[in-house]
Write a structure and sequence with these properties.
Elements: E1 7-11, H1 16-27, E2 31-36, H2 41-49, E3 54-58, H3 67-78, E4 81-83
Parallel strand pairs: 1-2, 1-4, 2-3
Length: about 80
C-alpha cells in the first residue's frame, strides 16, 4: 500500500513533540490527523502549509466514553487508520 494513502493519528499534535511528529509524517507523505484538546496557531499554520496532508481535530482524550464515536467519525471522514 502506498504510504500516501495511510492515515496516521497523532495525539498531542497541536504543539511541541506531537506537532513535530505530525509535521515529519506529513512531509513524508502520510495523511496525518493531529488530535489535541484545542487548536493553536502552530498547528493551524502547519495544516495550511501541508497541502492537505495534515489535518487537525479537537478532542479531549480524557472523555473516555466519547473515544469510540470519535474514531468512527475519523474513519468515516478519512478512511481506516494505519497508525497511532
Amino acid at each position: 500500500m502506498d504510504k500516501a494513502l495511510r492515515n496516521v493519528l497523532v495525539t498531542g499534535g497541536s504543539r511541541g513533540v506531537g506537532l513535530g511528529i505530525a509535521r515529519k509524517l506529513a512531509a513524508s507523505g502520510y495523511r496525518v490527523i493531529a488530535l489535541a484538546r484545542k487548536p493553536g496557531d502552530d498547528v493551524t499554520a502547519a495544516a495550511k502549509a501541508s497541502g492537505g496532508t495534515l489535518h487537525f481535530k479537537a478532542f479531549d482524550l480524557s472523555v473516555l466514553d466519547a473515544i469510540p464515536e470519535m474514531v468512527r467519525g475519523l474513519k468515516t471522514e478519512f478512511g481506516p487508520l494505519y497508525g497511532l
